[in-house]
Amino acid sequence: MRFDEAYSGKVFIMSGNDFEKAKAVIYGMPMDWTVSFRPGSRFGPGRIREASIGLEEYSPYMDKHLEEVAFFDAGDIPLPFGNAERSLHMIREYIGKLLAQGKFPIGLGGEHLVTWPVIQAMYEKHPDMALIHIDAHADLREEYEGETLSHSTPVRKICDLIGADNVYSFGIRSGMREEFQFAKESGMHMSKFHVAEPLKRMLPELQGRKVYVTIDIDVLDPAFAPGTGTAEAGGISSTELLDAIQLIAESDIQVIGADLVEVAPVYDHSEKTAIAASKFIREILLGWVK
């Protein structure tokens, strides 16, 4: 299930060659058709893979080596440029196929709207699921400038689908007044500004549950991740996000899939954003794929 026509030959470090034997599958969603500020996140998946070559295969955080995880890099879904509706349909269809084969999906974005079709497919298989959402932005709008398919809307769509009380957002520091009001009144769980400490307090509530995790790289302060489309000052450090990934790995929740989105490498000539993102993916592979 590799996308041969679009596949560039670059894979995440130590990716295996056997899809059938893989427990986890990395796939790219190179879409930035609905962004509200700066485009470029469609180039994120490729740069994350390239940056991974500089990683050590061993993680001192997890005390594990990538050779201990059977995973396969499928390349990027060949999404039709500018066609958001068709792109979302293709993502949902692909995730459905991965889940039918028992794979743990790890998505590379792309703008944050790509998480919406992933959750639609996930919810069909796991109707009792919850979402952990780590982001600078609430993403709770119903529309942006009249457009309902926007990277400002995925979490609101997910609240409507799986129930707001099953959505846990962390690190939020930007959004409309109405978005924060919705969070208060809907029953969803929103922690502003920080991630690791509120996550540590909240994880016992999710004990034993099936949870999908979506991470927007702009949860990091621009000092750590300038390469993103909608950078937001006042964010967390790379260390805090690594702590959060480890907390989830050590918890009793069952992670059923994950994605990392909104890496836009054109705005970061130092490549620190892609380098950080590749390290987070390594930790997700080693900590969340059981």
Automatic annotation (TrEMBL):
Superkingdom classification of source: Bacteria
Enzyme Commission identifier(s)? 3.5.3.11
Going by the UniProt record, its keywords in alphabetical order are:
Hydrolase, Metal-binding
KW Hydrolase (keyword) present: yes
Query: Per its UniProt record, what InterPro entries does this chain match?
Result: Agmatinase-rel, Ureohydrolase, Ureohydrolase_dom_sf, Ureohydrolase_Mn_BS
User: Which SUPFAM superfamilies does this one have?
Assistant: Arginase/deacetylase
Q: Which GO terms describe its molecular function?
A: agmatinase activity
The similarity annotation says:
Belongs to the arginase family. Agmatinase subfamily.
From the Swiss-Prot or TrEMBL record, give the protein name: Agmatinase
Q: Which organism is it from?
A: Virgibacillus halodenitrificans
